[in-house]
# Entry
Amino acid sequence: MDEAIDGLKLEACRAYARMINTLDYSCLDPWLDPDLEYQSQQVLEVMRGKERYSEYIRRKIETIRNSGYRTVAEIAYTDMFDPGPCVIIAQGEEERWVATLMVKMKGNLIGSMVMCIIPSPYECRRTREQPGRGCTPIRPYGCLEADRPE
# Structure
């Protein structure tokens, strides 16, 4: 993979992980292409459009916030399908990894995301980098202005 594209994809993964770790959708919003496609291996329908995804993920974030259920996102790397950076997600317990998020770029924006169980988070190389955790928030929930794409 081209180094510049790989670096951009890494930053996009960091934005997604920061959104999950801070429960702040605004961390991810500027990274999303208007024609974003989102799918999950556990749901047959492909979600199309940034607005539709925004509504979906905001509801999900609110549910997580209200439940008090711990969710953690970490940067990882995979050699499967689209090798490079990805995000692994734990729910309930910090080391209970349940999903891998694969990202594909469309120019400087995220064109598609796939929440999957293959590759398993346990098959990905962990970095222990969990954006948005353990830092001083500059904005509510810790989303940094410097993390926005240009």
